[in-house]
Amino acid sequence: MITDIYKKYKFEIIAGLFIIVLFFLSRLATLGELPIFTDEAIYIRWAQIAKNDSEWLFISLTDGKQPLFVWFTAIAMRFISDPLIAGRIVSVFAGFATIVGLFFLGKEIFKSRTVGILSGFIYTLYPFALVYDRMALYDSLVGTFTIWGLYSVVLFIKHINLSTAVFVGALSGIAVLNKSNGFFNLGLLPFSLLLFKWNEKKSLQRLAKWGVLSTLITLITFAIYFILRLSPFFYIIAQKNAVFVYPLSEWIKHPFTYFFQNLFVGQQDWLVRYIGIPFLLLVFYAFFVNKKTVRETLILFIWFLVPFIYLALFGKTLYPRYIFPMTLSLLPLIAYSLISIYQKIKIKYIFIPVFVLAFAYSLWTDYLIIKDFAWSPIPESDKSQYYADWPSGYGIKETINYMKEHEKGNNIALFTQGTFGLMPDAYTIYLYKDSQFTIKGIWPIDDTLPVELSESAKKNPTYIVFYQPCSNCPGKGKAPDAWQLTPALSIKKPAPDTWITLYKVIAE
C-alpha cells in the first residue's frame, strides 16, 4: 500500500521533501548571526517574564501588543536555552506552516497540487520570507494566519457549511490574538462571494446561509478576541494601533495627504525590492492565463491589494514588514503563471532559462541576505534597523564578554542608555539569571552624571552602555562629554557615526 501511494504521489513526495530540506537549511543555517533587533529584545523579554510568572501572560498588552507570539516564544524557551534562538525558531516554524498553507491554498483554488507545491517552493526562496522567518518578530506568524485564513475562506465559500464556518472563525479569532490585522480576515470575507456559484439551484438560499454563517464567523472571532479583556491593559491595544494607523476621526481631516507618499515612495519600493520585477510580471500575467480562472486570480490579488491600499491610506508609521503578510497571496499567482508558461512552451530547454530568469533575483538576494546582509538589495530601512544603525544589537555580545572577562568574580552594576527597548532588555534576556550582574536603564540623559552611577561605582565595578542618539551626546552611541567616563569598549556599527560604547564609571 505504501508503495502504491509513493508511485501515485512520487513527484509530490520528492518535491515536498526537497522543499522541507531547503527551507530549514536556509532558515537555520545562520539563525543567530543577525544581531538582536530592538523589538525582538522587547518580545523575548516579555516571553521570559510570562514563562516564569503566569500572572504576566498578558504582559505584552502593557504596550498594546497581542500576546500569541509571546506565548509561543515562552513555550520555545522551555526547550531552547538561547532566548534569541527560541524567539526566532517560532518564526521559522511559522514560515513552515505558511508553506503547508500555500500548498493547500494553491491546490484548492486552482485544483492543482503542482501549483500548491510550486507556491511553497517560491516561498522558500522568497527574500521577504527569508528575512522575517529568521527574526523574533510577529510578522512571520501574521503571514501564517493570512494564508490559512484565506484558505479557510476559500473552503467556506465552496461548501458554505457549519464546519468550515467554525474553521474560519477559529482561525480569525486566533489570528487577532496575535495582531490586530487579523481582522482583515473578516473585512475581506465579502470578497469571497467572487467564488460564489450564482447559477446553481437554490443560490438565494445558499446566499442567505452564507450570510448567517458569516455572522457566526464574526461572533466566534470576537469571542476569542475578547479573551484579552481578562487583562486590565486591553484598552492599550487601541492606543497602540493609533500610533501606527490613523483612526477614522483623524484620517478624515487629511484623507489623501500621505496616501501617495506611502504608496509610491514607501510601499511600492519595498514591494519591488523584496518580490522583484520578474515575479511581479508573473503576478499580472496570471490574469491572462485562463478566462475560467479570473475569479480565482482576482480573489488572491484582492487579498493583497485591499490591505495594501488600506495601509497606504491610513498608515502613519510604516515599515516594510507590515506589507509582508499581504504579499503572500501573490505567490500562488506566480506559481500559476509559471506552470502555464511551461504548459505552453512544452520544451524543457527553452523553459529552463525562463524559470532560472524568474528566480534569479530572489536567489541573488537570498545569497546576500545570508552571506552579507549589509549588501543585500532589500529596503534600506530594514538593513538599517536590523543590522547597521542604533536599533540593531550589533556589538552587545562583545560588551557582555568584555565585562565577564575583565571583572571575573566581581559583582557588576550595568546601566544602559534607555529604560525600554533594546536597552536594557537585550542585556536582561541574557543576564537575568546571572547573579554577577544587576541591570538598570537610565533616561533621560542629562548633562550631569546621575548620582546613582557615581554611588554605585564606590561599591562595585560600574558600567554604562550608550547606543542611540541623544540631544547632548556627541554621536550615536557616545556619552555626553560632561560625564567624564572612561571608555572600556567602543564598537563601530556599519552606519555612519554610529557606535555601541561601553563606559566604566570611575569612583571619585
Architecture blueprint of SSEs:
Blueprint: H1 2-8, H2 10-28, H3 38-52, H4 68-76, H5 83-110, H6 113-125, H7 127-132, H8 139-159, H9 162-176, H10 184-187, H11 203-225, H12 236-244, H13 248-251, H14 259-275, H15 277-285, H16 294-314, H17 324-327, H18 331-345, H19 348-371, H20 380-388, H21 396-406, E1 412-417, H22 422-431, E2 437-442, H23 451-457, E3 462-466, E4 486-492, E5 499-505
Parallel strand pairs: 1-2, 1-3
Antiparallel strand pairs: 3-5, 4-5
Short overview:
The chain is α/β, with parallel strands linked by helices and 508 residues long. The chain has helices at residues 2-8, 10-28, 38-52, 68-76, 83-110, 113-125, 127-132, 139-159, 162-176, 184-187, 203-225, 236-244, 248-251, 259-275, 277-285, 294-314, 324-327, 331-345, 348-371, 380-388, 396-406, 422-431, 451-457, and strands at residues 412-417, 437-442, 462-466, 486-492, 499-505. The chain folds into two domains: 2-382, no CATH class; 396-505, D-Maltodextrin-Binding Protein, domain 2, CATH 3.40.190.
Characterization of the model:
The structure is a single chain. The chain is of the alpha/beta class and 508 residues long. It has 2 domains: 2-382, no CATH class; 396-505, D-Maltodextrin-Binding Protein, domain 2 (3-Layer(aba) Sandwich), CATH 3.40.190. It is 59% helix and 6% strand. It is built from 23 helices and 5 strands. It has helices spanning 2-8, 10-28, 38-52, 68-76, 83-110, 113-125, 127-132, 139-159, 162-176, 184-187, 203-225, 236-244, 248-251, 259-275, 277-285, 294-314, 324-327, 331-345, 348-371, 380-388, 396-406, 422-431, 451-457; strands at residues 412-417, 437-442, 462-466, 486-492, 499-505. The protein has a 5-stranded mixed beta sheet, sandwiched between helices. Helix 2 (10-28) packs parallel to helix 6. The longest helix is centred in the N-terminal third of the chain and has 28 residues, at 83-110. It is globular and about 90 Å long.
